[in-house]
Amino acid sequence: MPAAAWSLTPASPPTATLPGSTKQGIRFATVRRRGRSLLERAQALDKSARQSIRVPTAAGTRLVSNHDDTVTLRSFGGDLRQITILRDSHRRSCVLITNDLETSLAAVLRRYARRWLVEQSIAEQLVFFHLNRLSSSMVIKVDFDLTMTVLANNLLRLLSLDLPPGYRRLTARRPYEKFLCNAAEMALEPDRCRVSLKKKRDLPALLEALQAVGPCGMPWLGNRRVEREIAIYTRCQLWH
Q1: How many domains does the chain have?
Q2: What is the pTM of this model?
């Protein structure tokens, strides 16, 4: 099977639909439905049957405890590779099945993790941007809503990337809640505009990132220089 022919299927698809992928030379990986007996067997695995590997991630590596085995599913009609990601008693183990018997375990896990991140991003847009509840049924307005949603999501992601390292992996909702959803007072002076932001725990990280930009004039404010402040009771700590 060619290495490039890969399919990451939705969680727990009917296994009767998977043999066709193998016949077409497509490698797939999917989450297996976790029944009680399957979870009990995972928890009962002896320590000698478990292995720990470091899987590369965006932030470095992560230690994953797992069990790699071969199983036969009657509805599939052949052998499948079953990867059980073992977790503690507070979280249920995750079980993956794939017809790829050759690729390294770390590569399979990382490939499926990318698919999972895409799914999480779509779920966030549904919840945070209400992507499934557009404001109009007119096609032109639907296109506009979608365009503005993608633009807002990308701008929030760019904001996260400009922040200190601890904030760069935030999804769109978190930077909005931490930095943008805030009150402020503005004072217009002849040559500047002073913005006093309400004190928030994470606000210094945003102002630190803005220091790299430096003072700049805003054309819609008569080219006044914008100075940002953190309001602390009756005093203000000035940040240029």
Answers
A1: 3
A2: 0.56
